[in-house]
Amino acid sequence: MAKVAVVGAGLMGVGIAHAFASSGHSVCLIDVSGEQLAKAQTTIAGILADGVRLGKVAQPAADAALARLTTSESVTAGAAGADLLVETVSENLAIKIDVVKKAEAVMAPTGLLATNTSALSVTEIAAACVDPTRVIGMHFFNPVQKMKLVELVRGLATTDEAVAIGRDYVAQLGKTAIVVNETPGLTTSRMSAMAGNEAMWMLQEGAATAEDIDTALRLGFNHPMGPLELGDLTGWDTRLSVLHYLHATLGDKFRPCPLIIKMVKAGRHGRKTGWGVYKYENGVKVPGSGLKGTNL
Length: 296
Ligand SMILES: NC(=O)c1ccc[n+]([C@@H]2O[C@H](COP(=O)([O-])OP(=O)(O)OC[C@H]3O[C@@H](n4cnc5c(N)ncnc54)[C@H](O)[C@@H]3O)[C@@H](O)[C@H]2O)c1
Description:
Layout: E1 3-7, H1 11-22, E2 26-30, H2 34-53, H3 59-67, E3 69-72, H4 75-78, E4 84-87, H5 93-106, E5 112-115, H6 122-127, E6 135-139, E7 149-154, H7 160-172, E8 176-181, H8 188-204, H9 210-221, H10 227-234, H11 236-250, H12 258-265, E9 280-281, E10 284-285
Parallel strand pairs: 1-2, 1-4, 2-3, 4-5, 5-6, 7-8
Antiparallel strand pairs: 6-7, 9-10
Helix pairs in contact: 1-2, 2-3, 8-10, 8-11
The structure holds nicotinamide-adenine-dinucleotide.
């Protein structure tokens, strides 16, 4: 089994670390924040405990997965000798480049460097590495323990061998890979950023309440959740970074709605801060708490 380093213990890092540890890999979860790492360990233990309670995981398997998980506040220490790096730090090119460069210097020489970026250029991240051929996009979905898709992204230099190794890892997680060429926003982020942004424009214009916009997409198109609920789940801070990038690369149709900018300034990032378009108490959406258009 491989030695996997997951950098970034936020929303996605927690799910990705859990997925690899549950599949038998040894995982070092790395973050600059010790507090974030402690929180992540508790969340992963909680996901495993839920799995046991629901009969999806046997207690010994859950205990073994937790035992395979270590943490570190240093990329250089935590990624030493790793066969696979999954960077899932904040959606910021400079931070991501810094992380992959540090990791490449200490990983196994044949190790795969994967980035979970939602929209940034894999080619640009790879170009900062000594060997760009083994850099790939490995785009997971939130919540990782439930979502079956992983988008593997070919940068300009990514080799077929790197793609094959990436496919192998995804299969080991019991998930399905699609392979896409690098374009801004890939296939999924581009679509969901557009839908979430448009829903926010509609909300800002007072076209309907948040609840009604989400209900429209759930019941009218059978989407499992509405675009505003999805934005709350993704985090509007992350969503805004993606929109800024898509706006710069694909043009004006991705101009971020000012309401998103206002919400991020207010710290209303979504579920993770307890308040986004909706309010959340103990992780549960408060009925009737959605923005109404008239209160903007
Ligand atoms: N949120 C989603 O639904 C989603 C889905 C797919 C992909 N992504 C992508 O995953 C990545 C992470 O998103 P998230 O929602 O988990 O963000 P997040 O804000 O929840 O977590 C980011 C983490 O990175 C850590 N970090 C920042 N700089 C660091 C550094 N230099 N070294 C180590 N750790 C560092 C932060 O402390 C934080 O814990 C982004 O690139 C995002 O675009 C997010």
